[in-house]
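To the wet lab folks,

You asked to see what we're planning to order before we commit. Fair enough. Below is the target structure as C-alpha cells, and below that is the sequence we designed to fit it. If anything looks off to you, flag it before the synthesis order goes out.
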C-alpha cells in the first residue's frame, strides 16, 4: 500500500482516528484510517518508531538469551522433593513444604498478584474472634521476646515473658 499523502513510498505508519464515541458500550461511531510513509509521518510529527529489519543473527541472539534465562531459572530445584521451577510452573502446585522457601522469590510476586497479599490473614475455622486475637497476641509477644533476648534486653524480656505466661494461662 502506498502512502496516502505523497503516493511515492510504501506506507509503514498506520493511523486510526476515533471520532464521536457513541454512548453504547464505548463503541466508536466513526473511524478514519490513514496509511503514510515514515517521511510523511515525521513531517506530520506523529510519534512512531521506524520499522527495524530483523536479521537471522538478531533472532538467533534473542533465542539464545531466552534459552539461557530459562536454563538458569529452571535450574532452581528443591533438595527435598526434587521439584524444579519449571515443574512448578507447569503443574501449578508445589511438591513439599520446603518448596515455599526454595521458590519464594517466584512465589511472592505470584501470591501478591493473585491474592493482593503474601501472608494469610483470614479466619481459622472453629475459633471465635477472641481466641484468634489471643493467639495473635501470643505470637507477637513470642517474636518480641526473641528479639529482646537477641538484643540482650533482659529486663524487657522478663516483662514480655510474664505477659506471655499470663496470656497462655488464660486459655488453660
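Sequence we intend to order:
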Amino acid at each position: 500500500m502506498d502512502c496516502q499523502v505523497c503516493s511515492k513510498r510504501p506506507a509503514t505508519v498506520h493511523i486510526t482516528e476515533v471520532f464521536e464515541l457513541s454512548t453504547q458500550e464505548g463503541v466508536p461511531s466513526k473511524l478514519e484510517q490513514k496509511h503514510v510513509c515514515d517521511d510523511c509521518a515525521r513531517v506530520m510529527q506523529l510519534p512512531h518508531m521506524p520499522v527495524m529489519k530483523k536479521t537471522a543473527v538478531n533472532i538467533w541472539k534473542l533465542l539464545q538469551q531466552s534459552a539461557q534465562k530459562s536454563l538458569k531459572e529452571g535450574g532452581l530445584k528443591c533438595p527435598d522433593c526434587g521439584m524444579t521451577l519449571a515443574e512448578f510452573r507447569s503443574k501449578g502446585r508445589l511438591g513439599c513444604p520446603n518448596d515455599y522457601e526454595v521458590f519464594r522469590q517466584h512465589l511472592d510476586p505470584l501470591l501478591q498478584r493473585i491474592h493482593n497479599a503474601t501472608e494469610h490473614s483470614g479466619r481459622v475455622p472453629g475459633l471465635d474472634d477472641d481466641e484468634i486475637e489471643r493467639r495473635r497476641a501470643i505470637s507477637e509477644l513470642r517474636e518480641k521476646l526473641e528479639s529482646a533476648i537477641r538484643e540482650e534486653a533482659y529486663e524487657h524480656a522478663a516483662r514480655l515473658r510474664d505477659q506471655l505466661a499470663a496470656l497462655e494461662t488464660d486459655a488453660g
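Structural context that might help your review: The first strand starts at residue 13 and ends at 21. The radius of gyration is 31 Å.

Thanks,
Computational group
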